[in-house]
Specification:
Elements (H helix, E strand, L loop, with lengths): L2 H11 L3 H12 L5 H9 L6 E7 L5 H14 L4 E6 L11 H12 L3 E6 L8 H15 L3 E7 L3 H8 L3 E6 L6 H6 L2 H4 L2 E4 L7 H15 L12 E3 L8 H18 L1 H32 L2 H10 L4 H14 L11
Parallel strand pairs: 1-4, 1-5, 2-3, 2-4, 5-6, 6-7
Bound molecules: guanosine-5'-triphosphate and magnesium ion.
C-alpha cells in the first residue's frame, strides 16, 4: 500500500466514516493502490447480511430501503446503503413523502448512504458496486442494502450478488410477464408488490404467485418459495412483513447451506472479474508502449494482419509484463 493508502486504511479500520467515504472514492475511481486497499479491507472479515432491492424505476425501492433501514435502526443495527445509478438520488430527492424519512436517515450517524451515479465512470458499474459493497461489509455494517433499477443485465447482476434479493413491483409497471422477461423473476427471493393503494395491486400479486407456481418445483432445487407481499411503502404498510420475510429467508439460507453456496459463487465470480480486469489493464499498458500506431502501418500496407500483430503484442506482454496492479500475496 502507498503511505497515503496505509494511513487511510488505519482510519478505515478505526471506524472513521470519512475514511470510509474516501475509501469508496478510491475504489470508484480505481486510484492506483485501490486493489491493495481492498485486499487489506477484505482481510478484516465479512459479516454483513446483504440485501438487494431491484425493480422498475419509481416502484418505491428507495422508500422500502429507507423503511427497512429505519426498522433495523430501531432494532439497534447500523446500516450501510448503496444506491447504484439511481434515477432519483437518495439525498435531496424530489419527493416529499419519502424525503422526510430519507433525510432523517441521512442525519442518523448509524446509517451510511452512498449514491453512485457514475455510468461511464472509470471502473465498470458492476465491478465498482461489488467492491463498494465489500467495503461497507468490511467496515463493519451488519446490514448492507443495495438498490439498483432493474432494467439492465448489469443492474440485475448487482442486486443478484446480495444474499437476499427483493424485487419490487407496482401495478403500473405492467404485467408480470414483462417482469419475467427482464429476468426479475429469476433473481427474486422475495417479491414486494408496492403501492398496494393503487388499483391492480392484488391482481399483480396473484399473477406473480401464479407464474411462480407454474415455474416452481422442477427447475429450482431450493426449498424456498419466494413470498409475494403487498406493501404501501410510503405509509409503512407491509414493512413489518417484509422484515419477517427477510429474517425467514436469512434462516433458510443458513439452514439449507444456500448461503455458503451463494458466497462461493460470488467469490468465484469476483476472482474471474479481478483477473479479467487486470489482464485488460496490462494489455492496454503494453499497447501504449509498443508503438501500436506505427506498427499498424504494416497492417494497412498488408505485411501484417490484425491477428499477426496482436500475436506479437501478446508475446511482448508475456515476455515483459508491466507492473501488476494487484498486490503480492502475503
Ligand atoms: N401511491 C403510493 N406511492 C408510493 C408508495 N411507496 C412509494 N411511493 C411513491 O413512489 C415514488 C417513487 O418512490 P421511490 O422510493 O423513489 O422509488 P424508486 O423505486 O426508488 O425510484 P427510482 O430510484 O427513481 O427508480 C415516490 O413519490 C414515493 O413517495 C406507495 O405505497 N403508494
Ligand atoms: Mg430509488
Amino acid at each position: 500500500m502507498t503511505p497515503v493508502g496505509t494511513r487511510l486504511f488505519q482510519e478505515f479500520r478505526r471506524g472513521d466514516r470519512r475514511a470510509l467515504a474516501r475509501a469508496i472514492s478510491l475504489v470508484e475511481n480505481q486510484v492506483p493502490g485501490f486493489q491493495a486497499f481492498l485486499h487489506g479491507a477484505l482481510g478484516l472479515g465479512s459479516r454483513a447480511r446483504r440485501v438487494g432491492f431491484t425493480g422498475p424505476p419509481g416502484a418505491g425501492k428507495s422508500t422500502l430501503v429507507s423503511a427497512v433501514a429505519s426498522a433495523a435502526r430501531a432494532a439497534g443495527e447500523e446500516v450501510g446503503i448503496l444506491a447504484v445509478d439511481p434515477t432519483s438520488p437518495f439525498s435531496g430527492g424530489a419527493l416529499l413523502g419519502d424525503r422526510i424519512r430519507m433525510q432523517e436517515l441521512a442525519l442518523d450517524p448509524g446509517v451510511f448512504i452512498r449514491s453512485m451515479a457514475t455510468r461511464g465512470s472509470l471502473g465498470g458499474l458492476a465491478d465498482s458496486s461489488m467492491e463498494i459493497l465489500d467495503l461497507l461489509d468490511a467496515f463493519g455494517f451488519p446490514l448492507v442494502l443495495v438498490e439498483t433499477v432493474g432494467v439492465g443485465q448489469t443492474e440485475l447482476e448487482i442486486a443478484g450478488t446480495a444474499d437476499t434479493t427483493v424485487v419490487v413491483l407496482v401495478p403500473e409497471s405492467g404485467d408480470s410477464i414483462q417482469a419475467m422477461k427482464a429476468g426479475l423473476m429469476e433473481i427474486a427471493d422475495i417479491f414486494v408488490v408496492n403501492k398496494a393503494d393503487r388499483p391492480g395491486a392484488r391482481r399483480l400479486a396473484r399473477d406473480v404467485q401464479m407464474s411462480l407456481h407454474l415455474r416452481g418445483g422442477g427447475a429450482s432445487a431450493s426449498s424456498w418459495s419466494p413470498p409475494v407481499l403487498l406493501a404501501e411503502g410510503q405509509r409503512g404498510e407491509g414493512v413489518a412483513e417484509l422484515m419477517e420475510a427477510l429474517e425467514a429467508h436469512r434462516e433458510h439460507l443458513v439452514v439449507s447451506g444456500e448461503l455458503q453456496r451463494r458466497r462461493r459463487a460470488r467469490a468465484e465470480d469476483r476472482v474471474r472479474r479481478v483477473v479479467e480486469r487486470e489482464l485488460v489493464r496490462m494489455a492496454r499498458e503494453v499497447m501504449k508502449g509498443s508503438g501500436i500506431r506505427e506498427r499498424v502501418d504494416l497492417v494497412v500496407e498488408g505485411g501484417e494482419t490484425p491477428y499477426s500483430l496482436a500475436h506479437r503484442m501478446i508475446e511482448d506482454l508475456l515476455e515483459s509484463p508491466p507492473p501488476r496492479g494487484i498486490p503480492e500475496p502475503g
